[in-house]
Specification:
Peroxisomal Thiolase, Chain A, domain 1; globular; 5-stranded mixed β-sheet; 13 strands; 4-stranded mixed β-sheet; 2 domains; alpha/beta; binds oxa(dethia)-CoA
């Protein structure tokens, strides 16, 4: 292969120290550990400490990815952060991360595609690298979703957690990120959203009305349908059959959604990376966290073929076919 490719040469992740178990919810709201496990697969989630921001999480994940890649900060010439929970409105979390890392001059920007943020970021960075606009890109998915939860809404507050994952993409002659596929359909905006914004205005409510609003059941049904479609699209675009994928690295929102996609691919669950039980739904953080977990635990081996996918508010959805 003579044209420039974009390879993932290092991954890293970070989870805040505090672990919140399902049992902690039982005394606060009308729920149970059994319900949460059975309906979502979640056992616990990590929660950022007061003052610990999305860029703090991103920083550790990025440093670990750079270390794994054996790449110095000065070599980074692009930073893209997928996040829907930026530290502040501006500057972007990517700019804050750039400064914390000690990087300089390179372009740095955020992508907000809700839970599909990392796949959008990867899709963009991969094109910078392939076209020669960047040689070494840092691609991050980082979130502090717990900051915008209504802790009295049992339909949402038990689902989400905080965390970050990162990959280093490097220009190479070998195939790496083989294809990326991203989509959106804004007609579903009211099924999963946060009603507060700058131009829509803040609200005279606790926490300014900042909270995740979700019609869980409807989101669930569209997610299952759409993720089946995106994995089919990815296989067809590469003329691959289902059995050529070594690992499914899915967005970690609900174990039942993950299982449905695996079933659609005829993949046994022992070829699917599952972290939702330990992390909850970390939105943009979820896929790179799962990828890093798969690699560092030794499950995913060099040279294997991975299918990454995600679905989130917007709706947005996306996938990537990656040769490690
Ligand atoms: O990452 C972005 C995309 N997000 C997702 O993919 C999330 C998609 N949705 C889901 O994962 C699921 O729909 C949920 C886990 C949110 C809900 O599971 P469900 O099986 O779809 O439940 P449901 O919404 O149909 O609700 C069933 C019942 C309701 O009670 P009634 O009306 O039948 O009496 C809910 O009020 O479960 C109730 N319920 C709960 N009960 C105990 C909802 N949340 C809880 C809870 N504990 N935490």
């Amino acid at each position: 292969m003579s044209s420039t490719q974009a390879r993932i040469i290092g991954t890293g992740s970070y989870l805040p120290a505090r672990i919140m178990t399902n049992a902690e919810f039982e005394s606060r709201i009308d729920t149970s550990d059994a319900w949460i496990r059975e309906r979502t697969g979640i056992e616990q989630r990590h929660v950022a400490a007061e003052g610990e921001t999305t860029s703090d999480l991103a920083l550790v994940a990025a440093q670990r990815a750079l270390e794994a890649a054996g790449v110095g900060v000065s070599e980074v010439d692009l930073i893209v952060v997928g996040t829907t929970t930026p530290d502040i409105i501006f500057p972007s979390t990517a700019c804050l991360l750039q400064h914390k890392l000690g990087a300089k001059d390179c372009p740095a920007f955020d992508v907000n595609a809700a839970c599909t943020g990392f796949l959008y970021a990867l899709s963009i960075a991969e094109k910078f690298v392939r076209t020669g606009a960047a040689r070494t890109a840092l691609v991050v998915g980082a979130e502090t979703l717990t900051r915008m939860l209504d802790w009295n809404d049992r339909g949402t507050c038990v689902l989400f957690g905080d965390g970050a994952g990162a990959v280093v993409l490097r220009a190479d002659s070998q195939l790496g990120v083989i294809s990326t596929h991203i989509h959106a359909d804004g007609q579903y905006q009211n099924l999963l959203y946060n009603p507060v914004g700058v131009s829509a205005g803040f609200k005279d409510e606790p926490n300014h009305g900042v909270r995740v609003m979700m019609s869980g059941n409807e989101v669930f049904r569209v997610a299952v349908r759409t993720l089946s479609r995106i994995v089919d699209e990815t296989l067809a675009a590469n003329q691959l059959s289902k059995d050529s994928i070594d690992w499914l690295v899915p967005h970690q929102a609900n174990l039942r959604i993950i299982s449905a996609t695996a079933k659609h691919l005829d993949m046994p669950m022992d070829r699917v990376i599952v972290t939702v039980n330990k992390h909850g739904n970390t939105s943009s953080g979820s896929v790179p966290l799962a990828l890093d977990h798969g690699i560092r635990s030794g499950l995913i081996k060099p040279g294997q073929l991975l299918l990454l996918e995600a679905f989130g508010g917007g709706f947005t959805w996306g996938s990537a076919l990656v040769r490690l």
